[in-house]
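Students often ask why inverse folding is considered easier than folding. One informal answer: many sequences map to the same fold, so there is more than one right answer. In these notes we will look at a single instance of the problem. The structure comes first.
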């Protein structure tokens, strides 16, 4: 199933040999097979690898760790895509510090699909949550949504994508068998079950470490044509991904927030410093990439007489539930049902305080 070169990558990945060290060794020995044969008792190689050198040499000699890793990968539905694989994503090959192996669970074809990253704070506000849901729902029509499976914006992006039958990639900062955070294991399983993908450059059992999350952000940006920042305070891990995206020459899009809200201070700062980054609708991003969305955008929706009454009332702006009852004459129980249907059709949006508006305000 795997070539000798690919197996070497799998073993190195399981031993947590960094990409920087792997490529230095590859450059030193010329190719992966020579590396695996000539690394023993080599002082230069020992200096490159450091403290993992003895464990690496031992694993290359007896082969047991590789056999065990391959068996456990098969048992857990995990496959490896390496820098020697045909389907290794070209978008990450030219990174300054490219990964050499991805441990994958799900549809590996998504690695080479048109991706857009959706990122933001873990401590997302109700407004930020609405932005993440509304933008992702529409963007997932044309992009594979990439994020990091963290709490907050990441989780909302993955969940919304699944709810709208879109495709999503979760880039992990630890091992793929038991994801971090553990509370998102069920979400990770749903991603795989619904045709998405989990990936990690770290060994299948790797424990999450603080330094790994900023490091994995280069992959979140690298897989994507652009980066959408939903909500970020000034001191946010989101800026690590933004920096990676800018270094890679990727597009960055940011939604403005209230100027008094500290949770949007980072977002607003990005907008001030980056001309053209500000977006107020997912259609802004789609237009930037010249996507043909007119047919989808203007699809005809048949409304009942009562649904049309509701739309007429909320077309003037933000309207409360009680005001809709008063102006339409529809009984509250029936109105709840009709409002839910209109939300599902993305015609109206529910606001805090049991108020409603036309969905066109975000679209």
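Output (designed amino acids):
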């Amino acid at each position: 199933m795997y070539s000798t070169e690919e197996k070497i990558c799998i073993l190195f990945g399981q031993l947590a040999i960094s990409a920087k060290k792997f490529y230095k060794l590859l450059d030193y020995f010329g190719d992966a097979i020579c590396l695996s044969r000539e690394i023993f008792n080599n002082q230069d190689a020992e200096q490159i690898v450091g403290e993992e050198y003895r464990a690496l040499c031992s694993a290359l000699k007896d082969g047991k760790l590789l056999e065990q890793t391959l068996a456990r990968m098969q048992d857990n539905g995990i496959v490896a895509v390496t820098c020697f694989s045909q389907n290794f994503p070209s978008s990450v090959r030219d990174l300054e510090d490219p990964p050499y192996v991805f441990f994958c669970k799900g549809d590996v074809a998504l690695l080479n699909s048109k991706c857009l990253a959706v990122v933001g704070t873990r401590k997302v506000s109700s407004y930020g949550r609405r932005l993440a849901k509304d933008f992702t729902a529409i963007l997932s029509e044309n992009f594979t949504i990439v994020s990091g499976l963290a709490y907050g914006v990441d989780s909302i992006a993955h969940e919304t994508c699944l709810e709208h039958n879109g495709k999503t990639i979760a880039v992990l900062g630890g091992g793929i068998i038991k994801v971090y955070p553990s509370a998102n294991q069920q979400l990770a399983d749903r991603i795989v079950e619904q045709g998405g993908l989990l990936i990690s450059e770290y060994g299948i059992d790797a424990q999450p470490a603080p330094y790994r999350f900023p490091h994995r952000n280069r992959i979140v940006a690298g897989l994507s044509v652009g980066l959408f920042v939903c909500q970020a305070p000034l001191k946010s891990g989101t800026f690590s991904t933004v920096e990676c995206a800018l270094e890679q020459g990727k597009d960055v899009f940011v939604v403005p927030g209230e100027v008094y809200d500290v949770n949007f201070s980072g977002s607003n700062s990005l907008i001030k410093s980056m001309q053209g980054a500000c977006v107020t609708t997912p259609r802004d991003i789609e237009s930037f990439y010249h996507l043909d969305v007119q047919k989808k955008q203007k699809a005809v929706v048949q409304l009942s007489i009562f649904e049309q009454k509701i739309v007429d009332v909320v077309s003037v702006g933000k309207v409360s539930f009680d005001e809709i009852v008063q102006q339409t004459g529809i009984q509250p129980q029936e109105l709840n049902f009709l409002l839910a249907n209109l939300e599902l059709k993305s015609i109206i949006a529910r606001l805090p305080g049991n108020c409603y508006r036309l969905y066109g305000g975000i679209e």
